[in-house]
Amino acid sequence: MSASLTRRPGPDHRGLGRRGLGRLLVVLAAAAYAVLLSISPAQAHASLIGTDPEEGAVLEQAPETITFTFDEAVTLPPAGVTVYDAKGQEVTSEATASGTEMKVSLAKASSLGDGTYVVAWRAVSADGHPISGSLTFAVGAPSLSVAPPPSTEPSKATAVIHGVLQFLQYAALLLVVGLVWFRGVIIGEHRVPDRAITRVQRVQILAGMVAVVALVALAPASGALQSESGPGAMLTFDAWSPASVGKEWLSALVGIVGIAATLALRERPRLAAATAVVAICAPALVGHSRAAVPAWLVTATDVVHLVAGALWLGGLVGLALTLPLITRRGTVAAEIVTRFSTLAAASLAALALSGVLMGWRILGSWDNLLNSTYGTLLMTKIALVVAVAVMAAGNRLLVLPRVRQAAGHDDTVEAGSMLRRAVLMEAGVLVVVLGVTGFLVDQPPQAGAGSAGAGTATVAQTNTQAAELGDDHRVYATLTPAGPGPNVLRLQIQDTAGEPVEAAAIPTAKLRSGDVDLGSLALRSVGAGTWEADVVLPKGGTWEATVGLRLGEFESPLGVLKFPVRQ
Predict the structure, then answer these.
(1) 185, 256, 358, 449: least CB-packed within 10 angstroms?
(2) pLDDT digits over 212-256, tens only?
(3) What is the widest separation between alpha-carbon atoms in the chain?
(4) CB of 323 closer than 8 Å to CB of 202
(5) Alpha-carbon distances, residue 505 vs 494, 546, 556 (angstroms)
């Protein structure tokens, strides 16, 4: 009998294995879900939690080392830190990062003159997203005017290119892996036309080539994204250097080795299905899952999520490729579709469990879900998956019985065409889901944070203002972070020589903006001639501080300083 003829299989002793694969996915996802529910959510994006010296500090001499402390490990991209003086001139410095600390050494600290200095920094958090900000401090006394450091807008074009490459990586990898499992698990021992197998293999090889190109291109694209540079930066050495994008190259290596092994063993589908697991691990080695804790378990859950998605997408595409050639072959088409439908139901359950788990671990709060771009894209993805699930249920309940009950040539052809259209619609929506995922993984999960390619972390803005207090004194003041909410007002009173003055009485300070008058502030001494007060600003705009200093019984000069506060 020709290999292209249909035969009815005997008792399916492998059915338990196929059902077991679906059950295993669900059990793994459920187990991870139960374990991680007992662990409190963790942020998946680094945040600056402290600096030494503090923001707005006025020091007697320049520090030899400036320390930044984050809530998770960070790395430094090339030229990640630059120090500027008040005139905007660069100051010689060297930056290193180790764990949660970033240190900036000032080679000529002892020779730095008085005035304000700005440290502009950029780092990469464990999830691969760039974060940036600035630190302002003064030596001796703040400068009356400070040139802002040069700023560059993160490239939206780079973010789009990176998102498209992510989509191509996901779609191609899932197709390579899903199609080999389609042939080994869903077609199994059924004899189908050689043309059908050839179709599947051609698409699988094409998907493998696309996946390799996307994996390689993602490394320099990630380097350009992390440096917040334009697409041209993808051609630079720094963007390709393993020192900058080592994790991305590791992901590419794992993916390429897995794809090569899978395609080399494509004539032995069951063995190829095992090696495909290596390829599907590649995307889980980078991104948000690497920053959530415990990383090993969240990464394993991510792999389960990808495996389930590969089974579903690969099965749908495999059916779309083979159905036109097997529809007329008795019950074979119905049996293959039934197998896929059963496995797809298990895949959907695993997708739901693992997806909810990772979303909860990465977002950490309802606020992040409802008020971040990541949350918006995640809810869009969920809505699309629900739509696909409804379509799949309709196909199983309405279309599949029609295929089973088809009698005669015309009825069989019509039922097969209906099934193929339904499968193509389902696969089309899943491709859209992958497109959303490609851009989803580039977004920071925190509410109010910008996208990885188009948003710098919020930077504390420090305004240094000065006013005369009589003929012999001057007050310098800073307001940090100069935004609505909690702020710190710092005052320093100096004499004509620029030395801090130890006044006999505590200065007075009042703060107001338009009709909003916060009254007198409670100042506390924090150093020679220096005072601070905590204040909560209810709104942005221009705030006016009135500072008074009692110098004698009949001498109490006032100085007025105005601070611009962001809305």
Answers:
(1) 256
(2) 999 999 889 888 887 778 888 888 888 888 877 888 898 889 989
(3) 117
(4) no
(5) 14, 16, 11
Handedness of CA 186, 191, 196, 199 (dihedral sign): positive
Inter-axis angle of helices 242-264 and 194-226, to 10 degrees? 180
Are the C-beta atoms of 219 and 240 separated by less than 8 Å? Answer: yes
Residue 33 structure tokens:
């879900």
Q: Of how many residues is the chain composed?
A: 567
First-to-last alpha carbon distance for the chain, in angstroms, is 79
Model pTM above 0.85 = no
Rounded distance, CA 110 to CA 113, Å? 8
∠ CA 282-287-292, nearest 5°, is 115
Tokens matching residue 340: 């896929």
CA atoms of 481 and 495, how far apart (whole Å):
27
Q: Are 430 and 167 in contact (CB under 8 A)?
A: no
Residue type, 54: E
* Range of weakest confidence among 238-247, 305-314, 547-556: 547-556
Taking only the tens place, the pLDDT of each residue in 144-171 is 667 777 766 667 888 888 888 988 888 8
Sheet of strand 530-537: strand arrangement:
463-469, 473-480, 485-495, 530-537, 524-527
With a CB cutoff of 8 Å and minimum separation 6, the contacts of 533 are 488, 489, 509, 521, 522, 523, 524
CB-based contact 330:337 (threshold 8 Å)? no
Q: How far is CA 300 from CA 272, 284, 293, 532, in A?
A: 21, 8, 12, 49
- Encode 211-243: b = buried (16+ Cβ within 10 Å), e = exposed: bbebbbbbbbbbbbbbbbbbeebbebebbbbee
CA distance 240 to 255: 17
Q: Which residues contact 428 (CB under 8 A, 6 or more apart)?
A: none
Among candidate residues 160, 161, 204, the one with its CA nearest the CA of residue 182: 204
Phi-psi region of 470 (alpha: psi -120 to 50; beta: other; left: phi over 0): left
| Cis peptide upstream of residue 142 (ω within 30 degrees of 0) | no
How does strand 81-85 pair with strand 485-495? unpaired
Asked if 314 and 177 touch (Cβ cutoff 8 Å), the reply is yes
For 455, the 3-state DSSP assignment is: coil
